Amino acid sequence: MDRPLRWGILGTGNIARQFAEGMPTARHGIVTAVGSRNVATAHAFATTYKIPEALGSYEQLIRSPNVDAIYLSLPNSMHAEWTIAALRAGKHVLCEKPIARDAGEAKTMFDEARRAGRLLMEAFMYRCHPQTRAVLDAVKSGAIGDLRLIRTSFCYRTRMIDGNIRFSRELAGGAMMDIGCYCVNFSRLIAGAEPTRIHAIGQLHESGVDVSASGVMKFPGGIHAIFGCGMDVQANNAASICGTEGYIEIPVPWKPPVQDAVWILGRSTPPRQDAGNSKAAPPIETFKTTAEVSLYALEADEFALAVLKGTPLPVIEADTLGNMRALDAIRAQIGVNF
């Protein structure tokens, strides 16, 4: 049996907890250590998730001989510094999204990965779920005709603002960096290209970050993508992909469940809005995909297989740099600077 990839978790925040919760179902990796600036916090995290080694500094974690790869869950502004440090320490790195503050910083990180001979990937975990791949395959197969429109939303309302890293300009927070990046990433994935034009607007918080943002992206081939995100607003957080012959609806695109993730394929013309109940809805097909293991375990396993067996990464450098360039353009338009 091949040796599993040994993971060290850098940071103990909410996303690190989600990763740790999912890892027991992983098939190609185990968590062997966690690192925090506070050793008591590291010990508490390790106890909760049954992790063998708790370390009281980030430096100790990236230098640990019991760790092959780092899952980096620190605030956005710290991604570049500690990714580069981990790469130089000989570790592979799975870095949470967005990978950096801007595209230039991201490119520096990938350049360092090449010099170190180690793998670096941005952690868009939804990309590893079979639902995402099934939907992409359906679009590519022509199931909805020619692609025309992509619509996405990712929103939540939080009242916890004081001390919230998402509301810190110094930590590279904001709605676009936290959740809007998913909408941009998904739209680029489905369009299969980089946007040629972007128009965005946003509402800024007094801290200098965007509390909400929305926009339109134009892609080659007459494809448009509309997105909205916010930290002070509610939405269905769904995704729609519209073509000349049909459409796809994904009720839960960003964190699809392990079992029976649902997506819907509709064909024909939608019912007239003024027809009431007198006209039957057009035919639709409901599909369900099952992942077998947790979403974060899927992501960790794909990364582990790339390290151990050389399989392709699900999110490559060019993809990440394209996403960061789009985020840079959006932030420039709405007035968010780091």
Description:
- This protein has 338 residues and is an alpha/beta fold.
- It folds into 2 domains: 5-124, Rossmann fold (3-Layer(aba) Sandwich), CATH 3.40.50; 130-290, 2-Layer Sandwich (Dihydrodipicolinate Reductase, domain 2), CATH 3.30.360.
- It is built from 9 helices and 14 strands.
- It has helices at residues 14-22, 39-49, 58-63, 79-88, 103-116, 130-140, 175-191, 295-309, 317-334, and strands spanning 5-10, 29-35, 53-55, 69-72, 92-96, 120-123, 147-155, 197-204, 210-219, 223-230, 239-243, 246-250, 261-267, 284-289.
- The strands form 2 sheets. Strands 8-9-10-7-11-12-13-14 form an 8-stranded mixed β-sheet, covered by helices on one side.
- α4 (79-88) runs parallel beside α5, α5 packs antiparallel against α9 (317-334) and α7 (175-191) crosses α9.
- The chain starts with a strand and ends with a helix.
- The mean pLDDT is 95.
Write the layout of secondary structure elements.
Elements: E1 5-10, H1 14-22, E2 29-35, H2 39-49, E3 53-55, H3 58-63, E4 69-72, H4 79-88, E5 92-96, H5 103-116, E6 120-123, H6 130-140, E7 147-155, H7 175-191, E8 197-204, E9 210-219, E10 223-230, E11 239-243, E12 246-250, E13 261-267, E14 284-289, H8 295-309, H9 317-334
Parallel strand pairs: 1-2, 1-4, 2-3, 4-5, 5-6, 7-10
Antiparallel strand pairs: 7-11, 8-9, 9-10, 11-12, 12-13, 13-14
